[in-house]
Amino acid sequence: MRFAFIALAAVLALVGGPGSAAQSQAPPVMVVLETEKGIIEIEVNVARAPVTSENFLKYVDGGFYDGGRFTPTVRPDTENRADFPIQVIQATVSPTRAREGFPAIALERTNVTGLLHKNGVISMARGGPDSATNQFFICIGDQPELDFGGKRNADGQGFAAFGRVVIGMDVVEAIQRAPVAKSPQDPKVLSQNLAPPILITKAHRKTSAGS
Prior knowledge:
The protein is an alpha+beta fold.
């Protein structure tokens, strides 16, 4: 009986059973964001950030980002944090789908996944830990203060990086540079809100044919 159990465990490991090496080596998934500024292709690291990747892909497959928006842009002239400045652009789902969606997910910390906030990395926006849903951001330049132990968020837990841009960083940078609205509190100060927001016309998995 013991021999049979060991043999079964070996078979499960080979075919990709729960917790197996095969599962941990899952290939990346390519996602295409078609935006008003051009195409952004993202490599989603399913193997190293499985929870965050699965959540993002559910929103992609469900069409939630079709009609979504890039709205906040954080850059030197819009950054309101002098202590730990960053540079990112952030996106959310279509306004018509904003009340739908899935439960918040557990935070996959960078000290566990090993996916750091380098140039072009995509990560989940959040408030408190375990609160991320559909909003994501893309780093422009290395942003170590967004990693575990970083000081951008007071709790020091960082954000959940789960992939990277492989094509279209020029589009990301063009979105970051786009015009922003003036601050409603002080017209002399720029807000972080793109005016108008940059539309995501469609988000989908990239097929083997390349589309």
